[in-house]
Amino acid sequence: MANSRSSGKQKSTVAGVAIAILIALYSLVRPSINDATGWNLPAIAQSQPRSERATNSPESSPERESPHPTSAPVEPTPKSGTLADGVSSSQASEATPAADASLKYGLLREVGRERYMSPAGLLYTPGSAEGHRLEHLRRHTEDQPSRPGKHGVFEGGMEGALKTIDQAYENAKIGKRTTKHSDDGRTIYTVDIGHRIGYVGGREGNQRHKPMARRVQLVLEGNRVITAFPL
Q1: Domain ranges across the chain
Q2: What is the secondary structure of 80-114 as a DSSP string?
Q3: What is the structure's pLDDT at 5?
């Protein structure tokens, strides 16, 4: 029994050696045969040594990815840019009309019963034949072609008139292009604004084809407006 096992091992060894020799010979002559005949004989693949497989295996690498990130989570930052700025601007513009809703003509702040203060500090109160200085001022936002003489007309309606009068008052306080005189406790300013602020209407102004007006005559009692009109 032992002899048969020994003879079997010898046969296996001889066969292995013979196969190894054949493989070596094949590997040596294969390129020559391919070159001479144009064939493409396959190469005999050699199995990778066990030790090399173990070295290249990703499982043997000492560095492994951590299952949990070590960096702190990034907090979301507030949105910025054109879209976000546009949203902020639209919200601000929506809030502006609500804030100006309490202002008469979008400019005048009510400081008492029927008493209104302009941004420059001029006061409009009840008075005049129209019942209120603002109603008197309104007459100077439209032409009256049949009225005798001249009739100064502000451009821009009531808002435009109020802004022009405030500008004239600011210029008058620093003496810019301003003449000043007093009459019966009232101060009368004539202020050259430097650009067109309306025109001269009435019967005489229409005969002259409504010449441009660039000056304002402003009559005050303290800071209270009595009248104002273009010249």
Answers
A1: 1-30, 109-230
A2: -SHHHHHHHHHHHHHHHHHHHTTSBTTTBEEEETT
A3: 55
